[in-house]
Amino acid sequence: MTQIGENKSNGRITIIYAEDERWFRESMVEMLVESGFGIIGAFSDGRELLGFAEGCPIPPDLYLTDLRMPNMNGIELTKEILKKWPNSQVIILTSEIENFYIDQARKAGAVGYLHKIIDYKNIKCALLEVHQTGATTIGKLNL
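^ thats the sequence. predicted structure below, dont judge the formating
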């Protein structure tokens, strides 16, 4: 678990992020911060993220999660987030491209399904689009 900053947006879009691959999590957090997002916390699995989120006095603007993680995967996490906070926006960022996972993400209520290989500019654009409109045209979920 890494708590990055206080839950104060200072006008920035706030994100809580779960990714089990430390190297990828750290590089994403760095890119997101450099892009102007406020990272409240970054965690190695969904259960850690959920436990942290339950204690947040102000919910994040966006939840960003990997699909495959130990203890609680991104689909289970999406369902739990939306059960507890129905108006939340969850984006799954993964290397899995099979239609089965895309369908599962859609059914769970994710608003975006992005492939990790897309460039950082597209990830940033997708997150901004989700925050502004509730959906994104970038990625696989809306195809």
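Residues 1-8 have pLDDT under 50 and may be disordered.
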